[in-house]
Inverse folding.
């Protein structure tokens, strides 16, 4: 019994020395660097969620920042667990960085107090390298308005450090790695094809029909509204049930019963919202004066109010509160003026715009929710490893769960990055790849969100940037087919010059992330070991 107590005391002494001389400093640094990486992801990837909405003039930058902050934090806290686990243990072979506790205790001596847990030290330094390299590259890309994939930065950053440290032995599973990379490619193709299939009939038979607001078309718009709300509700409840066991107070004979209850709730929400949209919301939008757009800037309002009076503009001889802004296509979105415009080929009519703008806001919020749930893993996955090493010394095989407060920390960093540094990428995604309208923006965001939700719940690591860009291509081609009837001419509805720059930034991300991570690892290893 005395020997067991002695061995336990030795282990506690080893952990104490490890914490005091290494792990605590790296933990504090990791907290700061993970926030910086989250900031970089928010400035680049998170901006993708709002590019189409801002580009179509549906929301202002201020509203994009406000709503994006709320949804990113919710997604990071409620939806991110499975994807974080994939980042933590799906690429790097953690077993290769796991020391033998028995050997450490058996070989311990007072003369070499800090010569233990070398493998864990390598792992911590490697995760720091990944966060530093990924953060630097994404901030540079944001400065040049390149919508790079944060998932690429982390995946190939992890590869860079672990290959440098352990060679091929540092890779968890080659097949798993191929699957992750494969899904990064598949996500853009899936989003492109699904968006085109979805948008083509909607645009041709509803939006561009002779009577876009027939009873049947109103039902279609109302159904879209209902499912735009009901589907995200179902996914949020499913993930919350998986991690928080909301129905634990009830005894069900079948373990799948809570899932059916949640699906029933989501379907009920979709039905209620659909009926509300058909009977009240759509008629209200069609009969409203001016256009629907969330473009109110509280700071601007307050500054003008202090100068004397509310900020007003004069339209057609009447004073109107300045809640609108000019859209990406140069059409003034001031109340009253849209009513006088003729429908231009490729653009939504004023009435169609009013119907799809609320849908676009909902889909953008869903997109931000998905981004928080999937891409927060890119920010805090490496930091979770550092935290677990600090907490346990040797990571147990079953301890890859991320505490909710770490996910919340990542979500806060993403939100701050969006607010302070996301404007440039928002503008690129908003109107750079293809001209944006409310109906097209809704379809792009909604399909990309659905693809992202499915992949997030399954626990697959994807790029939300790929999903959004794929959707932009698909919607542009679909609209071009309707307007021109020619596949060749339809390609003109996509700005391939801008798109080539986006693809180039994606390709550059792979070697840059790999090399930056490897270089940071070599430097940090020389400093701390």
């Amino acid at each position: 019994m005395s020997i067991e107590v002695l061995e336990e005391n030795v282990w506690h002494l080893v952990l104490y020395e490890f914490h005091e001389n290494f792990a605590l400093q790296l933990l504090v640094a990791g907290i700061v660097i993970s926030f910086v990486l989250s900031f970089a992801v928010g400035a680049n990837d998170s901006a993708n969620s709002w590019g189409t909405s801002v580009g179509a003039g549906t929301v202002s930058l201020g509203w994009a920042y406000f709503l994006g902050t709320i949804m990113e934090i919710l997604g990071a806290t409620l939806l991110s667990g499975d994807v974080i686990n994939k980042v933590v243990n799906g690429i790097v072979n953690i077993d290769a960085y796991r020391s033998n506790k028995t050997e450490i205790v058996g070989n311990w001596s007072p003369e070499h107090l800090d010569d233990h847990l070398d493998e864990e030290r390598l792992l911590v330094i490697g995760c720091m390298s990944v966060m530093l390299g990924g953060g630097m590259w994404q901030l540079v890309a944001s400065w040049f308005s390149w919508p790079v994939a944060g998932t690429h930065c982390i995946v190939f950053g992890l590869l860079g450090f672990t290959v440098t440290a352990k060679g091929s032995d540092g890779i968890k599973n080659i097949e798993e790695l191929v699957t992750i990379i494969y899904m990064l490619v598949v996500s853009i193709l899936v989003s492109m094809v699904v968006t085109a299939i979805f948008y083509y009939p909607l645009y041709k038979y509803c939006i561009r029909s002779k009577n876009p607001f027939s009873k049947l078309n109103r039902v279609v718009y109302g159904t879209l509204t209902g499912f735009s709300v009901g589907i995200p509700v179902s996914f949020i409840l499913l993930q919350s049930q998986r991690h928080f066991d909301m129905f634990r107070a009830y005894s069900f004979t079948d373990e799948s019963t809570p899932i059916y209850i949640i699906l029933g709730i989501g379907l009920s929400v979709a039905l209620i919202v659909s009926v509300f949209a058909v009977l009240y919301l759509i008629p209200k939008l069609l009969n409203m004066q001016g256009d629907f757009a969330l473009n109110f800037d509280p700071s601007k309002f307050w500054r003008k109010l202090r100068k004397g009076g509310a900020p007003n503009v004069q339209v057609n001889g009447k004073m109107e509160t300045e809640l609108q802004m000019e859209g990406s296509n140069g059409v003034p979105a001031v109340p009253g003026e849209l009513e006088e415009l003729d429908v231009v080929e490729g653009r939504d009519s004023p009435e169609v715009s009013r119907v799809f703008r609320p849908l676009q806001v909902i889909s953008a919020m869903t997109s931000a929710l998905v981004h928080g749930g999937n891409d927060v893993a890119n920010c805090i996955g490496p930091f979770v490893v550092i935290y677990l090493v600090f907490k346990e010394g040797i990571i147990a095989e079953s301890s890859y769960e991320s505490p909710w407060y770490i996910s919340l920390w990542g979500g806060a960093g993403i939100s701050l990055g969006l607010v302070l540094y996301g404007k440039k990428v928002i503008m690129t995604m908003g109107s750079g790849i293809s001209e944006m309208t409310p109906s097209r923006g809704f379809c792009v965001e909604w399909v990309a969100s659905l693809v992202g939700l499915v992949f997030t719940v399954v626990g697959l690591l994807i790029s939300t940037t790929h999903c959004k860009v794929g959707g932009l291509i698909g919607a542009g081609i679909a609209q071009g087919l309707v307007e021109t009837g020619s596949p060749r001419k339809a390609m003109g509805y996509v700005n391939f010059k801008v798109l080539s720059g986006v693809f180039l930034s994606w390709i550059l991300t792979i070697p840059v992330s790999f090399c930056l991570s490897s270089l940071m690892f070599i430097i940090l290893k020389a400093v701390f070991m």
